[in-house]
């Protein structure tokens, strides 16, 4: 519990003021979010969960795209959830998007949302900020319905980009407690294997962004 509170407090301090300009500034480098959303394709009347929903930008965009699905979002930062709540209300989507404060590494969906599984779960640029990100991924896969999918988009290894660019980016990200997970694909493959699931890897923009998809059997 102390770890949860410490990390939640850190995120509140980081985003207490940034949350007001987050979407306007992050759109220039949080690349791959929209391609990830386009790949969700939840079933009709399906359930979708975003882990680390932040300002609610992705939830609103996904809910508008998939009008027959219901959406849920959790975040450890109360500050971000306050902004997300305003975004959802402004979009008129309160009936289709539910928000809650929770630690994704020990998330109880029945207690929080009254359901055990989801058809789709996605994590957008959050595994690079979560200390126990591998545990969060394992927990997410455990809460997928049969045929469900976990979609993750985050920073890649920048391998095809100039070395100076990668060094500058990593230094800048460190100021905001962001650590790209260069073993994301390997971890995804290991988790998928332990659940009899399949995994898809996508490298975008010369390795700037990665998308990992874990699909459980129907």
UniProtKB/TrEMBL annotation:
<dbReference type="InterPro" id="IPR029063">
    <property type="entry name" value="SAM-dependent_MTases_sf"/>
</dbReference>
<dbReference type="GO" id="GO:0032259">
    <property type="term" value="P:methylation"/>
</dbReference>
<dbReference type="GO" id="GO:0008168">
    <property type="term" value="F:methyltransferase activity"/>
</dbReference>
<feature type="domain" description="Methyltransferase">
    <location>
        <begin position="48"/>
        <end position="148"/>
    </location>
</feature>
<dbReference type="InterPro" id="IPR041698">
    <property type="entry name" value="Methyltransf_25"/>
</dbReference>
<protein>
    <submittedName>
        <fullName>Class I SAM-dependent methyltransferase</fullName>
    </submittedName>
</protein>
<dbReference type="Pfam" id="PF13649">
    <property type="entry name" value="Methyltransf_25"/>
</dbReference>
<keyword id="KW-0808">Transferase</keyword>
<keyword id="KW-0489">Methyltransferase</keyword>
């Amino acid at each position: 519990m102390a770890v949860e509170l410490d990390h939640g407090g850190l995120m509140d301090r980081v985003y207490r003021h940034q949350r007001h300009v987050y979407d306007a500034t992050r759109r220039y480098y949080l690349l791959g979010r929209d391609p990830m959303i386009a790949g969700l394709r939840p079933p009709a009347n399906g359930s979708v969960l975003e882990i680390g929903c932040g300002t609610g930008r992705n939830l609103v965009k996904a809910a508008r795209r998939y009008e027959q699905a219901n959406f849920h979002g959790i975040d450890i930062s109360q500050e971000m959830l306050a902004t997300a709540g305003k975004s959802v209300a402004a979009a008129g989507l309160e009936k289709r998007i539910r928000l809650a404060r929770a630690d994704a590494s020990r998330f109880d969906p029945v207690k929080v949302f009254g359901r055990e599984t989801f058809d789709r779960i996605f994590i957008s640029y959050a595994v690079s900020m979560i200390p126990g990100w591998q545990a969060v991924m394992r927990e997410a896969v455990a809460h997928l319905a049969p045929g469900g999918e976990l979609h993750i988009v985050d920073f890649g290894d920048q391998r095809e980009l100039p070395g100076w660019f990668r060094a500058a980016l990593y230094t800048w990200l460190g100021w905001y407690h962001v650590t790209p997970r260069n073993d994301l694909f390997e971890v995804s493959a290991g988790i998928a294997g332990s659940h009899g699931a399949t995994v898809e890897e996508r490298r975008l923009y010369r390795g700037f962004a990665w998308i990992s998809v874990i699909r459980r059997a129907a």
